[in-house]
Amino acid sequence: MNSDTPSAIVASYRRCMRGDGFIDTFYRLFLASSDEVRIKFQFTDMVHQKLVLRESLLMLILYSENQDRSQAELIKLAERHDRNHADIAPHLYELWLDTLCIAVAQHDPEFTPQVEQLWRDAMQPGIDLMISRY
Asked: CB-based contacts of 1: which residues, under 8 Å, 6+ apart?
């Protein structure tokens, strides 16, 4: 793969983002997945939150591909989610990732089990870092 060719995970991200519905689907599913999640987002500006998620997904992808390049930004994100701020408990990340993969399945026309595994593999290093900073 040359440097102009996007990685498979970036290509899937782009396919998901082509339409308007991916982020909405994710939050609809995520908020419905747990009362604990719903309560966490009760007073959240969802317009802003949806923009943040788009950026955070890219940050997590970049971190999985080159941890040195994006670690500082991910540490800031982890701090915003730690027990002293948003208090996102470690067990919620598994639910977040499962929900993300369901949304990808609904919005990536080239979705396969391999694409799901790409997403899981790409998100996990960042999730691990965020949990370690809880």
From this structure: 7
Residues 6+ apart with CB under 8 A from 33: 95, 99
CA distance 16 to 93: 20
CA–CA separation, 11 and 79 (whole Å): 29
Instruction: Indicate the DSSP class of residue 87.
Output: -
Q: Is the pLDDT of residue 76 over 60?
A: yes
Mean pLDDT of the chain: 94
Distance, in Å, from the CA atom of 1 to the CA atom of 71, rounded to the nearest integer, reads: 24
**CATH number assigned to the domain comprising residue 120:** 1.10.490.10
Structural domain span for residue 94: 8-132
The SS3 of residue 45 is coil
The whole-model pTM stands at 0.92
Number of domains in the chain: 1
